[in-house]
């Protein structure tokens, strides 16, 4: 994303108003999801789309457990999100651990915030997970493809993609 004012959407008129805002009750929902992801049987079911990302704070050294939706793509995991504070801890190729219903894996994180990468990778995510796309303000064309206008709007509003490469 750039520091300048948003430009006109080159892909047309978006079908949504953008990513859903963080709700006041989101912290409670995250607590419940983190708990469910620790239960072996449920984690296998829920973990097909959700995981817990264990992010270490750059300054504090504290570990934050963040429930995230992910997509498997070309041997990596993709996470589409807005530029939240925890994402800043992953910049610069940081190591991070992720739990997907089993032993945590160590991965190297790459944060993509440039227009081209975000459009390409969010298209992959939206094709794989319609619920995640909806949460991130991405609708679909009449042909069933993710709307490029919506993905562009998500990028303009701070959308990034985190790619995790397992070791």
Automatic annotation (TrEMBL):
**Signal peptide annotation:** none
Per the record, where are the segments of Low complexity compositional bias?
Answer: 10-21
What InterPro entries does its record include?
A: F420H2_quin_Rdtase, Split_barrel_FMN-bd
Source domain of life: Bacteria
Q: Region annotation Disordered: residue ranges?
A: 1-23
Name the chain's protein: Deazaflavin-dependent oxidoreductase (Nitroreductase family)
What is the source species?
Nocardia rhizosphaerihabitans
């Amino acid at each position: 994303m750039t520091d300048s004012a948003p430009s006109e959407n080159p892909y047309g008129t978006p079908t949504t108003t953008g990513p859903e805002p963080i709700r006041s009750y989101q912290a409670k929902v995250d607590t419940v999801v983190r708990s469910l992801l620790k239960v072996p049987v449920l984690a296998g079911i829920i973990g097909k789309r959700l995981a817990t990302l264990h992010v270490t704070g750059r300054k504090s050294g504290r570990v934050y457990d963040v429930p995230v939706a992910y997509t498997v793509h070309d041997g990596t995991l993709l996470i589409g999100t807005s530029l939240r504070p925890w994402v800043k801890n992953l910049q610069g190729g940081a190591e991070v651990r992720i739990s997907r219903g089993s032993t945590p894996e160590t991965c190297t994180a790459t944060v993509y915030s440039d227009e081209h990468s975000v459009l390409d990778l969010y298209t992959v995510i939206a094709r794989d997970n319609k619920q995640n796309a909806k949460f991130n303000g991405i609708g679909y064309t009449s042909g069933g493809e993710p709307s490029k206008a919506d993905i562009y709007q998500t990028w303009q509003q701070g959308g990034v993609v985190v790619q995790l490469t397992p070791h």
